[in-house]
Amino acid sequence: MTVPRWSAAGRTEYRVDELRIVGDFPLGEGGSAQVWRCTTPDEVSVAFKRYDRDTVRQLQPEVLRELVGWPHRLDQDDRKRMLELCAWPHAVVVENGTVVGILMPLAPREFFFESHSGPQPRAFTRVAVRVSDAQKRLHTYFDFPHKIARLGQLLVDLQFLHDNDIVVGDLQPNNILTTDAYPVDGVVSAHNYFLDCDSFLIGGRGATPRLDPLPWRPPYPVQQFTATTDLFKFALLMIRCLAEDLAANQLDYRQYAQLLPSGDFQKVDRLLTTPHPDLTSADLRALALAWQSVVRPDGRVYRRTDFALREPWNEHTRAAHFAGFAVPAPTSSAPSQGISPIVIVAWIALFIVLLTVVIALA
Q: What are the phi and psi torsion angles at 118 (to 5°)?
């Protein structure tokens, strides 16, 4: 990946009237802002995120300016990685002395796919798409090892941000772009790219009004976004990617015994159920690296189970995995209501004992 080009002047503030808007329609818009393609006075093409009036009123401009300068606190290697990983704000935009938006780089080309209407961003939501839906829309399908590997890379990315005192906060798949699962020039390159970085928290402080969509909220009270809330949302995203359903809240882990060891799911459960999951950075790093390893750069694909650290993932193992989906299974990890094999064996043993007693008395 290459770091997006930016102004040679190194400016961190622009006026609205200095920017030239390109196009008649915004690149995107949400409830609090519109994003436009524009060029700076030195002819650099960038994205201009202009906030609506309510957001401008609630904005913390001093924190936003500090956010702009945050990468310069890092050493050269970490700063380069940060700018490759995030659409980090490079400048604030002012109008009549008031901060009304930010300038940020346009996402690199590798995070887009071609469609009949032109290049479209590849959001992380595509990692959760079912094979039938991907085929119908002529999109790349992320097979289960590719889902795991991409989630492993995302966990590595989150740890990098957390290590630099940055919390994502509004972590959800629409705010993350990802590269294709197909090899490019013979190499599978798994990279992610964070959007809406102006909503990140630095040193525990945020510049924009807090966004916390209900479908991604933890089950426990949250006063402030932290690394723990990021990890909860990551674990929930993992569940939803494997379920191939972005509305899923639970998963029957037994269906995925052909894909991951049970200990991995136990760690995910701890991230989902408690604000104090008691997992160290080393635990998370080991989990992330293990998940990344199931897809090799040369395209070879593997699985990890309770019985093998790594086995090839092929049509046979894929068929065995999907056999668990032939009959609808419960959507939670609650025990089955059927008769336990242990109970059946106990009844047989009791019957044999009674039969022996009857024969002895005859």
A: 110, -175
